[in-house]
Amino acid sequence: MKMDAIQKRLIAEVAGLHEVPAGAYNFRANSQLAGRQTTANIDIQSKEDGSGIDITIKPGTKNESVHIPVVLSASGIKETVYNDFYVGAGADVVIVAGCGIDNCGTQDSEHDGVHRFFLEKGAKVKYVEKHYGSGDGDGKRILNPVTEVTMAEDSSMEMEMVQIKGVDSTERMTKASLKAGARLVIRERLMTHGQQKAFSGYRVTLDGEGASADVVSRSVARDTSFQKFDARIAGNAPCHGHTECDSIIMDQGKILAVPSLEANHVDAELVHEAAIGKIAGDQLIKLMTLGLTEKEAEEQIINGFLK
Amino acid sequence: MLKLEHISFSVTEDDRTVEILRDINLTVDDRKFVVITGPNGSGKSTLARIIAGIETPTSGRILLDGQDITEKSITERAKLGIAFAFQQPVRFKGLGVLDLLRLATGRNLSANEACEYLFEVGLCAKDYIDREVNASLSGGELKRIEIATVMARQAKLTLFDEPEAGIDLWSFQNLSRIFAKMREDIKDSSILIISHQERILSIADEIIVLTDGRIEKKGPAEEILAGIIGTEAAAPACRRLHEEGTP
User: Of B84, B88, B106, which is closest to A289 when you measure between CB atoms?
Assistant: First the structure.
């Protein structure tokens, strides 16, 4: 694997990897391919125009994983990458994506990943995506991911999206359309600090009977950072949709939550919840009576909230 | 040993000063199980919060083992050996029962050790160890977890603010056994409980009756208990429920 120490550290942050993983993978470092492995069931091909990769998972593939981390350690890179995942009927796989940017330079570094998922009938995917930024240069670390999920009958997808540290600006859009019996669960955790700005939008349409979506975001806005959460679920059939945005606001942070629901069928059951507030005083006091300082108590509460 | 000297506490509401506690003097000796009782609004919870450092007295001094802790913060008092069980246990999104027990003991408690604390308060540990301390727990469950975390601290002085509040009578019968056991295992520590429950009052070494912010009487349990049984301060819970009417 052709990676330096900074790139290896970024990989560990975003993919939890300290060595080459088992199964299929595609590592991208500073816009270059740094390593690729395919398996009998999972194929990875570069797109002909060089704009990204196609990952094809054979029907019935079980207990396999795909890692596709991206790292940027040079200042001034701006790239847009298109990755398409074709998940065959009845497959059950884990996909780990993530992007780490280390920018010590003065120019902005930006990675815009467009991920499209096509789940065939009964396919099951657990998708984990982590974003991380580091480096103390003036150049901004920018990530604008777009995720599109097309789900056939009875397929299911669980998405875990985490961005805890160091990304200056992010504009995330996740779109999903679900056929009958398909199930989508999204858990987003976001923390912004300094002057960071984060926008997270969801557009989910439930098109078939028994389709369900559960979109839950937990976030913390510190310092003078700003977050906007904008989730819309549309129900076009007898279905269940739930969105929840739960945020802790600190310092001079600002949060705008815009959950919205659209029911186009009399049996569409849609619920949204949104709550924004500072850390409750009695939570701090409780932990202080256990011997923690106020600052330690605050850290414990935030760590737990974003766990 | 805890000593309160001339503790007073007042608040200002609409330019009017309301006295909550007036010139409280009391001592809780080591190896003693002391209960503070009295009608609602008599200042009992405020007194407990003043001892834990959550409220600051308007005047007076608090001494723990001879050391003046009046100016000490909540954290400092906790480190000096004061534990406090809340009347309304706090809920946390994301913090688990094991996390809280670890914070309470200040070490990386194993799941097995944590289970022992839960077992003490009558919770089947395997059902709870991974649970979040959030709104999914019932009032009775939360109360038991609160008591377990406070017991896990093995503090010099443990304060309980109305452990019976918010739980049903059946659960409380079981809880009262936990307090009887604490009384047996007190060693060199001391326990101060705010309670209206006869079951708690009857196992006390000393009882303090607080009325309208003053100590009305204090003394050995048997002496005080004889005078207050059947009064508002120690009405059996079922009679009070009957009189207040269930909602």
Answer: B84
